[in-house]
Amino acid sequence: xxEPSGTSAGIRAGAHRRRRSVRRALVAVLGTxxxxxxxxxxxxxxxxxxxxxxxxxxxxxxxxDFNGSAGSGVNTADWLYDTGTSYPGGAANWGTGEVxxxxxxxxxxxxDGNGNLLITPRRDASGHWTSGRIETTRxxxxxxxxxxxxxxxRIQMPNVTGAAAKGYWPAFWMLGSPFRGNYQNWPGVGExxxxxxxxxxxxxxxxxxxxxxxxxxxxxxxxxxxxxxCAGTTCQAGFHTYAMEWDRSTSPEEIRFYLDGxxxxxxxxxxxxATTWANATSHGYFIILNVxxxxxxxxxxxxxxxxxxxxxxxxxxxYVQVLQSSGGGGGTTPPxxxxxxxxxxxxxxxxxxxxxxxxxSTTDSGGxxxxxxxxxxxxxxxxxxxxxxxxxxxxxxxxxxGAAGGVSGLVExxxxxxxxxxxxxxxxxxxxGWQSWRTIPANISAVTGTHDVYLTFTSxxxxxxxxxxxxxxxx
Length: 475
Description:
single chain; disordered N terminus; mainly beta; eight-stranded antiparallel sheet
């Protein structure tokens, strides 16, 4: 959702996402077969499904199943209501430019009597919007030393799409505990956006915010983010499970984001400097649920609510659950990755982590998908690329560009860290269109052994400049 401290999601989304053209924004609605099976069972569960029993090795540290009588409010032992248009002394409009006023009214925040929480935006006769925003009273959610924390919720986003969804911005997210009562220390204290959505698009965005703003090691005000479509049913048409797993049992420590059990975005401690990571993770977090109307993020995808926006479509939350694993085995482990052959095409959409890119269908030979919406500062990670004992000295990438005249940038190859010195790169400008494909070669420094490969993208301006279908290496 982004920090409510003055340079919030609206502003950070604007800095990075505002450059996405409508063409790029809409590619996020495309589904993928790889997620369909994982989502199928989730989509068929009833609306009031019980929270899952903790698996072996995990213990439950928080649960709200939202059981209660229809029209009642949330349990104020567990939740605080945020009201008005800002925190006391905090930035106006929650720092994001959103236009609604938050209330504690059961018109905006209420149980439905069937085990669900409804957060419902309303519009009065004068055109003024109200909605709801609640946060946990607890601020101590963090993994134990050597262990893991999993925060998850089963949610149906507001069931509204197209022009009627203009301005909708539902979110399930977390802020570092030092923010409560300060409201000026974002993004250094950390923010974890488990789920964000705008404009009724079939897309789940997940982001970590940290460091300094603007820019800094976490690319603020964008943060380190990734996105994926909902499969089986759209994010709006059915329930899906959105989760964050913070893992201190790995080296380096990492934070993983999941949609229906599929890990689609990972942030590792070694992606930023040690001080930045420590400042963002050396404390607990609290959880926030809200539906904003308007602001910078919806503004990046067409604007805030207008006369055609339909009020009264709630975000429906079945449960919020927090689990903890003490380490030493048990719990979810990262999915296997790696074992890629450097000399066979690596499909660009098969990344293990990314920031700023989207997948879309390709018209290139062989079909499938490519990655797009790529501009300065974006990157994609491919783990475990095996170069063998005979050095690779060439890099090849299948790329396309519909960038405007004068817009160009570098496609770079880095090994094992996205901040390492590139081993090679090539420049790219317009190729004749976003699906007009060219295979571009580049010389690289000699590489042997097995490495994590980062494709990084650098340009002197903010516009998108490249799509990537696949890449490989040669001797």
